[in-house]
């Protein structure tokens, strides 16, 4: 797996990350499913929900739930249908899993959050995995709400290590 650094260069998933960074554990098989979903959905953005065991600083993905992108402009935005999202949450709960986070693609953009992603993020401490197809890279970010970033309004994304 390749992930994108803050400078845009591509690094191996285990490259020189700080141990105090938040961490997302994704088995290779689930990461491959997400990447296949991304390739199959191109040129539109695809999206889905990640289930497993959640912790504010280290979560483990145990399942992924591909969802339909119902955004008005699916080539540049993603939106999970609220009813489908609720159904996925109920399936997660029935399986004894928690909501670990979400994933989507940037078919022609970097594997890091866009301004639109920042504006739309609402799940504190959850992971937001972004797959870029051009160039290919996988990145993950934790959404930290305003309370978690010194009382600022809104919030910000924090880089997250991905390990398998």
TrEMBL record:
UniProt name for this protein: Metalloprotease JAMM1, desampylating
Q: Which InterPro entries match?
A: JAB_dom_prok, JAMM/MPN+_dom, Metalloprotease_DSAMP, MPN, VirAsm_ModProt
Query: Coiled-coil intervals in this record?
Result: none
Query: What GO terms describe the biological role, i.e. biological process, of this protein?
Result: proteolysis
State which Enzyme Commission number(s) the record gives. Answer: 3.4.24.88
Organism in which the protein naturally occurs: Natrialba magadii (strain ATCC 43099 / DSM 3394 / CCM 3739 / CIP 104546 / IAM 13178 / JCM 8861 / NBRC 102185 / NCIMB 2190 / MS3)
> Could you tell me where the Basic and acidic residues compositional bias lies?
1-12
Region (Disordered): which ranges?
Answer: 1-23
State the organism's lineage.
Archaea, Methanobacteriati, Methanobacteriota, Stenosarchaea group, Halobacteria
């Amino acid at each position: 797996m390749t992930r994108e650094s803050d400078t845009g260069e591509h690094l191996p998933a285990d490259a020189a990350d700080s141990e105090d960074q938040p961490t997302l554990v994704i088995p290779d098989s689930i990461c491959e499913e997400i990447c296949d979903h991304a390739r199959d959905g191109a040129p539109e953005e695809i999206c889905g929900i990640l289930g497993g065991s959640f912790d504010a600083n280290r979560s483990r993905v145990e399942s992924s739930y591909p969802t339909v992108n119902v955004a008005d402009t699916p080539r540049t935005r993603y939106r999970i249908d609220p009813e489908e999202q609720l159904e996925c949450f109920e399936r997660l709960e029935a399986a004894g899993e928690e909501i670990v986070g979400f994933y989507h693609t940037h078919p022609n953009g970097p594997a890091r959050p866009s301004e639109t992603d920042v504006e739309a993020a609402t799940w504190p401490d959850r992971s937001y995995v972004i797959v870029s197809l051009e160039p290919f890279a996988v990145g993950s970010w934790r959404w930290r709400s305003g309370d978690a970033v010194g009382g600022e309004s809104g919030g910000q994304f924090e880089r997250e290590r991905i390990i398998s």
